[in-house]
Amino acid sequence: MDSITGFKKRSTETFQANVPGSKSFTNRALVLAAHQIGKTVVHNALICDDTIYLSKALSAFDGLKATQDGNSFIVERAGETIKAPEEPIYLGAAGTPVRFMLSFSASAEGQTLVTGNERLSERPMKDILDAFETAGIEYECKGEAGHLPVLVTGGPAKTAEWKINGEVSSQFTSSLLIHASQQLDKPKVSVEVLNYLVSRPYINMTLEMMGKIGLNVAEPETNHFEITPARSSASDIYVEIDASGMSYILTAAVLTQTTVRIKGISRKSSQGDVGLVAIYEKMGCKVEEEDNAIVFTGAPISGITVDMETMPDVAPSLAVAGVVASGPVEITNIANLRVKECDRISACCDELKRLGAEVEEGEDWMKIYPAKTLKPVQVKTYDDHRIAMAFSLLGLVHEGISVEEPECVTKSFPDFWKEMQRFVDFHQQS
To answer: Which domain, by its residues, includes 51?
Structure first.
């Protein structure tokens, strides 16, 4: 399936959406579980390309096993010590898992070679490698400096005062925070973030999950963390639904002016991407909160200028909705979208232009103008799941729009096409 078609009428009933578990929470939960001795169950996990790559990578270590059981992962660790795998760890295009795996590899005896596909090898790893130098963690870039593949030598970090540049990706900081918690030979480890820390909500997610399993992280000064190393023994870790995945359901409701109910999340979620709910509300949509659920009703939307630095992954969803707004939609402070699975600013702008919309683009912003009609085009997705899902939604309100590489949605929302077909059928059968 490469398009969403057949939406001809709207039901006044509420569509009960099925959104998978959070990819960000699942990745963190897997790594945290792998540091625990014994058996840990990660419940309501997102089973997708990224998390499968990460679970297989963890299973490659001697003394560690991660297996899938329905919508859960079962992680089993035999003892204090694990050994590096003999073969390279390949993580495909999985950006978050590779950044977590670089640090995790330093906790295993021996040397671990971490690598990925061509695009992942182009993405920047310099910040975490520079942080390794402050921590005294040994590594060697086997290709271009600051990029994969990287050979990591395991063993305790030589220092307890770590520093990390926060300007490129919060994932580096999250990776270090988790790794710091496992420096059991040290009473405290300090992680100081230098420069501006982008996407702070993702750090909050990491801290929240660590706290829930008993790992203590203090923040005596903003972006300066003090970690008390310890082994957690939590037997169960629960994953919230994915706010990034929810964005496509919200945007479908905006485009069709219908009502959806999304269970398993609230507006108080630590996931930054839940902020799209408030943006759409400000633009004219209606939001109601139930116990652990959001009821959202799409409506004609106004233009807006919005800083999306804390929720960059849902910027493509808002960009797509911008074509039906009554005024321009300007999305600012999103420079890190240029170093995602593709350059998402250019991808959004180029594809909206191909569809016939008027857009403007800057180094860290894009501006979308309303478009009454769109051309029937096969959208280029650049093998990026978020571009594919966001742009496919335009097929709900414009005929002839499809996407290339529809299978790339398996990176974060494997049942996306089934869910959107269910959305269409719900309305047509009412």
So the answer is: 23-225
